[in-house]
Amino acid sequence: MMKLAAVCCLLVLTALTTASTTASTSQGTVAPGSSYDGSLLIGAFNIQVFGISKVGKVHVLQTLVKILKRYDLVLIQEIRDSSGTAIRTLLDTLNSEVQDKYEMALSSRLGRTSSKEQYAYFYKPSRLTLLWNYVYDDDSEDKFEREPFVAYFESPTTAMERFAMIGVHIKPSEAVAELDHLVHVYDDYVNKSAGNTNAIIAGDFNADCRYVSKTALKNSLLRSDMRFRWIIPDDADTTVAASDCSYDRIVLAGDDLFDSYQQNRTGAFYFDREYHLDINMAAEVSDHYPVEMFIKGNLDLEYSPDAIQPMLTAYSDSISRSGSFRAVVWMCLLVMGPLMFP
Ligand SMILES: [Ca+2]
Ligand SMILES: [Ca+2]
């Protein structure tokens, strides 16, 4: 009981001293990932022409690291760097600033012309085990400019045992055709995983404004097939510029994912507002905002010494979100009440 009381006091102190660390999304607020209960914050970020020039600018690199460390798993798109060093610099810089280190899965360089792009997944092995990954093979049909990059994860801290992330940066001028073909990419993954239907299809789909009309979107296979749920709405704004386009999307498939994700913690992450960057500073980082989603964890909370710090983080996040200390007061009353009024 003394331990619980100590935790309680620490929670109150934390509540009183913690500055808000939450971030606005299109539909609410999202706290950084890795909370105590095993939940996952998953993102997809098109870091416009990511390469040596970008990591060479200290303020850009710092902002990228700040954004990426929100996530337990994040897809990075538009890596354009024949030297292959920029993404490694980004990963190393990120890992120098966190205790819970990230690992990377990197695709081959993709594209029909000499202008190639790579995808990367940064993920925390403390939360997820990467089982296998592959670039979708479209050699026989050549449907994609940049073939989707599929990574299959084991997730011991959520209700999903295993799921895939299917990342894609769709070519704007062929957006409708590539969108349609994502259904085949998904079916191919289900086969490869011996029938696992859980998948997060995410990336810059270019599925709005001048590239995909509302009618074309409505008629696209990925939209009309009821196995898929589009969780970033058509009216979301995922562009840093004044334009209002919902280019970056997350589409879910599989009952476990439908049950585990939280819609009110899903949306674009407006890093310019959150970090108080003016439009020029933000534009140096990317022309896109990341999109993100939250998956509930299923770990039981234990009152072990090791559990206290993550608990403090998690509760201070929840306090920041609610903007009140009521949660802490209620918890203290529940814990201390029986002691004080036996
Ligand atoms: Ca191709
Ligand atoms: Ca915009």
UniProtKB/TrEMBL annotation:
<dbReference type="GO" id="GO:0005634">
    <property type="term" value="C:nucleus"/>
</dbReference>
<keyword id="KW-0378">Hydrolase</keyword>
<keyword id="KW-0732">Signal</keyword>
<dbReference type="GO" id="GO:0006308">
    <property type="term" value="P:DNA catabolic process"/>
</dbReference>
<protein>
    <recommendedName>
        <fullName>Endonuclease/exonuclease/phosphatase domain-containing protein</fullName>
    </recommendedName>
</protein>
<dbReference type="Pfam" id="PF03372">
    <property type="entry name" value="Exo_endo_phos"/>
</dbReference>
<dbReference type="GO" id="GO:0003677">
    <property type="term" value="F:DNA binding"/>
</dbReference>
<dbReference type="InterPro" id="IPR016202">
    <property type="entry name" value="DNase_I"/>
</dbReference>
<dbReference type="InterPro" id="IPR005135">
    <property type="entry name" value="Endo/exonuclease/phosphatase"/>
</dbReference>
<feature type="domain" description="Endonuclease/exonuclease/phosphatase">
    <location>
        <begin position="44"/>
        <end position="288"/>
    </location>
</feature>
<dbReference type="InterPro" id="IPR036691">
    <property type="entry name" value="Endo/exonu/phosph_ase_sf"/>
</dbReference>
<feature type="signal peptide">
    <location>
        <begin position="1"/>
        <end position="19"/>
    </location>
</feature>
<keyword id="KW-0540">Nuclease</keyword>
<dbReference type="GO" id="GO:0004530">
    <property type="term" value="F:deoxyribonuclease I activity"/>
</dbReference>
<comment type="similarity">
    <text>Belongs to the DNase I family.</text>
</comment>
